[in-house]
Amino acid sequence: MPTAEALEKPDLYVVARHLERLWREDGPMLKTRLQVAAGVNYDLFTRYLEWMQAKGLVTMESSEDGHERVILTSKGEEAYKKLVQWINEVIHEKLPE
Amino acid sequence: MKGGRLAAVSALILLATVTMMAAVIRLLPDFWGLSPAAPAFIFLPFIFLWRFRLTIATGTSGQVLSDLVRRLRMAKYQVSQSQHRLRVKVSSNTDLAVHARDSGEECEVTYQVNLTTNSTGTLVVIVLFTGGFLLVPAAVYLLIKASSFAEGGILPQVPLGGTPKSPEGVADIRSELIDGLSEGYRLSYEAYEATQSMYTTAVMSLLLTGILVWLAVFGLVSFGGLLSVMISRVIDSALLATAVALPFTIIPLQRYRRRWKPRVNDYWQWSHRLQLALVLEVDRITTANRQSSTFELIGEACSEVPKWLADRRRGGYLNRESNSVMLYSVLGALTIYLLYNTFYSLSLNFGFGFVSFVVVITSALLAFIAIEVWLYWRAKRGLRGEERTVVADWTARMLRTRAKMERYLQDL
After folding, report:
1. How many domains does chain A have?
2. Does residue A97 form part of some domain?
3. Were A44 and a residue from A40, B45, B333, B390 both cysteine, which residue would form a disulfide, CB within 3.0 to 4.6 Å?
């Protein structure tokens, strides 16, 4: 489980999980829903969210009902796409038969 | 000649050899004994080596094949891609190789029926049981099945009006995810099939060994005159043979079961998990409580791939562990049977004593076991070396890619 220091080097899969869930959502997503989908505790979720905001992968939006929503930026979508392409390159790599 | 054609030619040579062996073993009186198989060897190269034209598509061969592989995966077919061809699974018995050849601004798309291990095995069994009578009908059946699949399943997916540029954004990411899941599913399912087949062959080998040991012990005790009273001799020989044969079967069977069953189940679960994710992705279903992301699933699958590849290689065509053991066992048993007959007739005609008869047969049996153990050990050592290389190579590649991804996230 990543700690506060480990967030300096965040877990690849946890970041990808956040980005993928946001990419699947057609528009802004409630913070609590994203936290449940990402499967991390609130403290950790907040740190990841801050990290992703700092990197420009997501932005926050306050709505009239007082709930905060998370939006995937185009940079975030591009980052997720790159990760998927790289993992695909691994699984498609041919080994000698 | 390479790839599919080389495999098809090897399989046809094997079939021809088996057909001739079948004719010789059956001691057919003359050359005409081979006649049922003769028409087969005129038709079989046509069926399995000919490239049948499917259609003409607009675009280069590379573009057409790339687009076709994406569309086929979206349509949930099992497809693998190499440089100039696709391999599409029709059923457990049939594969199709789809080729594209440039011709000006267009390209010709053709298909070829592949002889898989299963279909070759089926044709060998047909030769052994019918002497080649049903070889042509069986091959024609495979051709008809493959052709109707090509016309009904593949043709509608060929981009006839040119290959569209893939749109940026959502659809692009989805097709990448489908691509990864589809490849993972194919690899895991092939590993499952190979492992299941190895397990079945291993069980069959053990049963065969058990039967051979039983027959050998029964024959030696019963007909060797070790027991004098006839009825007692038959019953006691049968009981003794069973007592000797059982440890050769039951104990290794349990060992094989413990070794293979968990692996078969694990691969089945993996292929099921990836197939489910593939279906959800293709049908654009987003479940609220997905256990993990598709990216994670592909990442986890990547770490399993070395195991899948190793087992798929082991389950290769007649040259791997259990298949080899079974082949050596059958050949060895035939040799010993021939020796047994020769020395038995010699002992009858020239008055060979029983002791020299037993000594010769036992020596032959021990020599055969020693050769088999040595071949098995050598094959296994080679296989372990290959596995270590595959695992090391794959692990290094995974680590490099992961480091690249982490660096990318850091540098954003």
Report:
1. 1
2. no
3. A40
